[in-house]
Amino acid sequence: MARPALILIPGLLNDADLWRDQIVALADLADCHVADITQGETLRGLAQAVLAKAPARFALAGFSLGGFVAQEMVRIAPERIERLALIDTSIHADVPEREEQRRALNRAALAPGKFHGFGDRLLATYLDPAHIADEAIVERIRGMTERLGPEVFVRQNSMARVDGTHVLRTLACPLLVMCGENDRLTPLADHEEMAALAPDARLVVVPDSGHMTPIENPRVVNEALRAWLAGLAPHGAPGPETSHPADRATQQPEPWPPDPAGQSSTAR
Q1: Is the dihedral of CA 203, 204, 208, 214 positive or negative?
Q2: Which is it for the CA torsion 240, 245, 246, 248, positive or negative?
Q3: Among 86, 186, 180, residue whose Cα is nearest residue 137
Q4: Pairwise CA distance, residues 220 & 213, whole Å
Q5: In this predicted model, what pLDDT tens digit does every residue of 217-266 receive, in sequence order?
Q6: Are 18 and 144 in contact (CB under 8 A)?
Q7: Largest alpha-carbon pair distance within the chain?
Q8: Which of 47, 85, 138, 241 could bond to 72 as cystine, CB 3.0-4.6 Å?
Q9: How many CB atoms lie within 10 A of CB 114?
Q10: What are φ and ψ of residue 12, in 5° steps?
């Protein structure tokens, strides 16, 4: 029997390396493809480009900005998506103050001089405190930033984020919502709201993690995605819109975010 297709969508200034551990861990369950969201100008354009290369039916997981792209794909072609995972992301559109912050960041990114990407101050908002000094994690994040650069940052950062409340309320497929317990950019309360909206949703809280859960705690992320792909509740979670206590226990590609000024910014 052919393995089901799984499309993985990275976040702002992330490439396929974001999903490296998941591609390996899920290889026996799914045919994994990482979407390229570096070229479009709008969420709708990105969603249409990913759908154009996707098989007729597939599972879909979106991280951070990729979660917004995934929601747009549901708007366009809900009948093609077998199950949805939204990881460290949001359903809320930008408020005017946030839109102005994005414009300022874009100006800084295109100013003469070196593109700073993930400086130390920004990393402190992205990562759990236990990982800020982890050189392997830090270099992996900075490597993605350096490969993609300021032009990709400006394109992705300029995209209008669209409210996804209606998408989740009318979602017809199973939903996995996953969030780092110490995510300061897209906090747990936002993910609890998402899980409460969808008819068939489960929430998994990833321990000892900030925003970058696929890299910070791949074991828990992989286990949750495996259970989701198999149509099971993570660790036997009792039902929809629930996070089982076991989900909080401490545990440790194929091609298909950043603050230019070294100051705080959101990854989504």
Answers
A1: negative
A2: positive
A3: 180
A4: 9
A5: 999 999 999 999 998 644 433 333 333 333 333 332 333 333 333 433 44
A6: yes
A7: 54
A8: 47
A9: 8
A10: -60, 125
Write the pLDDT tens digit of every residue in 96-111. Answer: 888 888 888 788 777 8
Do the Cβ atoms of 145 and 171 come closer than 8 Å? no
SS (H, E, C) the chain: CCCCEEEEECCCCCCHHHHHHHHHHCCCCCEEEECCCCCCCCHHHHHHHHHHHCCCCEEEEEECHHHHHHHHHHHHCHHHEEEEEEECCCCCCCCHHHHHHHHHHHHHHHCCCCCCCCCHHHHHHHCCHHHCCCHHHHHHHHHHHHHHHHHHHHHHHCCCCCCCHHHHHCCCCCEEEEEECCCCCCCHHHHHHHHHHCCCEEEEEECCCCCCHHHHCHHHHHHHHHHHHCCCCHHHCCCCCCCCHHHHCCCCCCECCCCCCCCCCCCC
Contacts (Cβ under 8 Å, ≥6 apart) of 59: 4, 5, 6, 7, 30, 81, 82, 83, 84, 85, 228, 229
Give me the pLDDT at residue 232, please: 62
- The count of other CB atoms within 10 Å of the CB of residue 245 is 9
Name the residue with tokens 């070196």. Answer: 114
| Token duo for residue 71 | 């929601």
Structure tokens at 156: 């992705």
How far does Cα 85 stand from its chain's mean position?
Answer: 9
